Amino acid sequence: CMYSTLHTVTNKPLASSRRCSSARARAAVLSFLPILTWLPSYPVRRFLFSDVVSGLSTGVVQLPQGLAYAMLAAVPPVYGLYSSFYPVLLYTFFGTSRHISVGTFAVMSLMIGGVAVREAPDDMFNVLPANASNMSATVDTEARDARRVQVAVMLTTLVGIIQILFGVLRFGFVTIYLTEPLVRGFTTAASLHVFVSQLKYLLGVKTQRFCGVLSIVYSLKAVLWNITSTNVATLILGLVGIVFLYLVKYVNERFKKKLPVPIPGEIIVVMVSTGVSYGLSLSDDYMVDVVGKIPTGLLPPAAPDFSLFPRLITDSFTVAIVGFSMDISLAKTFALKHGYSVDGNQELIALGLCNFISSFFQTFAISCSMSRTLVQESTGGKTQIAGLMASLVVLLVVVAIGFVFQPLPQTALAAIIMVNLLGMFKQFRDIPNLWRTSKIELAIWLVACAASVLLGLDYGLLVAVLFAMLTVIYRTQRSQSHASDLSCCFSAPKVPCWGIKIFHSNSSIYFANSDLYVTSLKEKTGVNPEHIQAARKARKKQEAKANDNHSSPPILFLRLQYGKQEVTREVSSDNHVAVQHINGPVGDSCPDVDSEVVHLKTPNAVHSIVLDWTPVTFIDSVGAKAIKQVSKEYAAVGVRVVIAACSRSLLAELDTLQFFTGVMTPDVMFPTVHDAVLHCHHSGSCPVAVAAVAAPPPVEELS
């Protein structure tokens, strides 16, 4: 009988989950097309002007970056413009972040360029002049560039397919193995590769482009070997551009609160250098390399060259994971800042669709850019309408005035790329900080950087991930013990504790499981700060609507569910609490008024959460940041997070990681769970939720 009852109970949710309904179909559509969740209620008067200004500002930055990063991808500059239009347009419909700016990205472009050069090196396109056996062979640049475009397009197609499959299979968690020190070390190494690759354009020397192991050494050696053939006009123009862009970035950062929009230094450099090049005929008279032919209009769709599939499949996995890790890290950062959430799996699908569909229109793989995202957010961007406007700016250039940029010197684009690397070079400051806080994470940073510099970005990333996994094994198996004196022993009467949750997880907290720990904490406790904030915003919206209509204040009903019984609480706008008991089954309707109904798992107002860290043996900087961030989120909704049963070695690690700052002070640490519960019971109150209507249950422990 017990088995049949259990079988019936456990199969009901499964049967209901498999049942198709209009609500499930609608949820699936909204999940696949997030634009449908916010566009119907888009506040035109409040958001449209800000989004338009932000989009125009971002588009002005995206235009020169698209031209410049195409050089990194080893394809003609116009393909950078294509990659700055189609993916940005598609992300507006499929992306879940409201603030990131997708498009060309230096690290991704460099990785694609390395693959393109490997598959289509200059040696494959040497042409001997007719009737001139004593002359050296020349490179057929048109045939070479066409082949490299085919390689980049096919790689982008595979990247899109992989990202879509990962998103459908819910593999968004793969990026947890790219811990923050690893990513920062890897991107620092990538910035060094990018910087060295642009030296030949800055100096105006002709060198071969290298890829693979020690490519950065060979590239630097080739530039230094040919430095005597430096084009002085090219060097002067590039240095002037670098100095100007650096000063503009300094002014934008120093006076960002006073400037309505950042000064568009990149587009100024592009326009001025193009005008100077055209007016002084730098290409003809001074042998300055320029962008060259930019065809007007968009290319018709074409199928990729699938014969390249076997040679590119390994590279596509690397590019897909790196691109997604960059996207999701920025998306989560700005989502936390502005109080909304992003779906990692939907972001994978969105990036995959952007890459896959756009590849048929001759684009290369994209991700998001920190510099453009900061511009889009700082100029007032509220939604991806800003990204849509930025893509239209690029479209205008492609279909109408692209030919204007044909005299643009390549050294100006090199200057733009080099100055944009300043933010990544600042990551070298991580070394002294990690030395003070975590030697193991410093080792991860150094291995990721050194391996990526010497072995190339693909092999370097693989070595870094393997090393990070080895550190996890080392930390997990390293045992620490200590003896402690029991200074006091006491017994306290059992008291009913109302609104306290104890969360227990049988694992340490580090980069590989920090997101899972936070997600499980919110699910098990039933207290999600995002949902509480959303309920508050909905209530404020109702109050504002009621004030506009000169009607009575809205009523908020909170329905709290106890199995088949439920309690409905009516909260008016003046914080008066009227309690109504409904003893019928779940599903009885509330009074027929405009109301917001929130289902909670338990009828108690949680004011304190105790984290039981008895099994936690170590924590890294990523885990510490995750705990601090979730504590800050809970503090914003009036829920206090305290930590109990923390070992001495773990306390020392937390102190080294500078954990006790902001909302996290030493006062939140308790020697036992019992002490933490007593403290929360005596000092805690319910600052956010309504008053209790029934006898409080005992403390609920969650594992």
From TrEMBL:
Keywords: Membrane, Transmembrane, Transmembrane helix
Membrane topology: Multi-pass membrane protein
Location within or outside the cell: Membrane
SUPFAM superfamilies recorded: SpoIIaa-like
Name of the gene this protein is made from: SLC26A5
GO CC annotation: membrane
Name the UniProt record assigns to this protein: Solute carrier family 26 member 5
Gene3D superfamilies: STAS domain (3.30.750.24)
Bilayer-spanning residue ranges: 27-48, 68-93, 151-173, 223-247, 385-405, 412-428, 443-474
Organism in which the protein naturally occurs: Scophthalmus maximus
